[in-house]
Amino acid sequence: QLQLVESGGGLVQPGGSLRLSCAASGLTLDVYTLGWFRQAPGKEREFVARINWSGGSTYYADSVKGRFTVSRDNAKNTMYLQMNSLKPEDTAVYYCATTSWGSSRVDRYETWGQGTQVTVSS
């Protein structure tokens, strides 16, 4: 059974950077599109970024475009999210997930990790 584990979250000052990782076990990831989502307290889970199976195609939410970069290493069965120029409004629990669709919709994603907390504050 496929399992996903996120890591790399933490507390960072505005303008700082973090790199999140999403490691998979149980199955290989190279057949899936992978996505990053986030959920702030009191808000719905929202799409952040996705990357196709080869890593050749990426897509970002407007709110993170130009600041975040999604990548993957299929040999390591891992996806990454490099987050730069972080803002307080980026504070949320960040989740990774798999989909067989090329979609940004939460309900198209099948397997989810447990999440990692990112807090941007001075």
Explain this structure to me?
It is built from no helices and eleven strands. The radius of gyration is 13 Å and the shape is globular.
List the helices and strands and how they pair.
Elements: E1 3-7, E2 10-12, E3 18-25, E4 33-39, E5 46-51, E6 58-60, E7 68-73, E8 78-83, E9 92-99, E10 111-112, E11 116-120
Parallel strand pairs: 2-11
Antiparallel strand pairs: 1-3, 3-8, 4-5, 4-9, 5-6, 7-8, 9-10, 9-11
Q: Short description, anyone?
A:
The chain is mainly beta. The chain has strands at 3-7, 10-12, 18-25, 33-39, 46-51, 58-60, 68-73, 78-83, 92-99, 111-112, 116-120.
- Major sheet summary line: 7 strands, mixed
Assembly of the depicted chains: single chain
**Which regions have little confidence, pLDDT < 50, spanning 5+ residues?**
none
- Secondary-structure content class: mainly beta
* Distance linking N and C termini: 40 Å
Rg from Cα: 13 Å
How do the helices and strands follow one another from N- to C-terminus?
Answer: EEEEEEEEEEE
Mean pLDDT: 94
DSSP strand content: over 45%
Rough outline: globular
Q: Report the helical percentage.
A: under 10%
Number of strands: 11
